[in-house]
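FORM 12-B: Structure-to-Sequence Request
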């Protein structure tokens, strides 16, 4: 699974950079045409929204793959999970379920409902924006499974002592 994860990481990294650069260009173009030319391009608003949604969802999947997401450990403390391995598996199961049910399944339903709705000013449908949901959901489910396998094989998150040693 690691070679697939490595390739997927690289693809996500490139897509995020491309989407961010495109977002910056579209917003600068929007501001320029509105403020300097006094004739705003109507499609730039919708294009910026679509780029932002795609960037946010794919960026979230990439951050999750890198294990750089915000760790909310109040639930593991409340459940008194003392084992680091058990905590990692538990958290990744919860994130995987969220990715599968909310993003993947809910996203597929959203895409189906909105695929035929046209967007004014752009040759795309509303469903194309919602397509980011199931794609990021599938990626997050993949990484959740990958992290669970790593945790059960002892290659999960480093211990606090290991992190301190690496920082020094």
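FORM 12-B RESPONSE
SEQUENCE OUT:
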């Amino acid at each position: 699974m690691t070679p697939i994860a490595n390739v997927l990481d690289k693809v996500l990294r490139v897509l995020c950079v491309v989407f961010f650069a495109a977002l910056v260009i579209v917003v600068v173009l929007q501001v320029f045409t509105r403020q300097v030319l006094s004739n705003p391009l109507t499609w730039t608003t919708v294009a910026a929204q679509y780029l932002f949604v795609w960037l946010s969802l794919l960026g979230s999947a990439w951050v999750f793959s890198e294990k750089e997401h915000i760790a909310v450990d109040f639930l593991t403390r409340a459940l008194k999970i003392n084992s680091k391995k058990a905590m990692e598996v538990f958290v990744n199961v919860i994130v995987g379920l969220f990715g599968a049910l909310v993003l993947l399944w809910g996203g597929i339903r959203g895409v189906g409902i909105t695929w035929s709705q046209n967007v004014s000013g752009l040759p795309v449908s509303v469903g194309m924006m919602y397509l980011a949901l199931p794609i990021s959901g599938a990626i997050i489910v993949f990484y959740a499974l990958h992290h669970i396998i790593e945790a059960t094989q002892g290659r999960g998150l480093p211990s606090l002592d290991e992190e301190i040693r690496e920082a020094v």
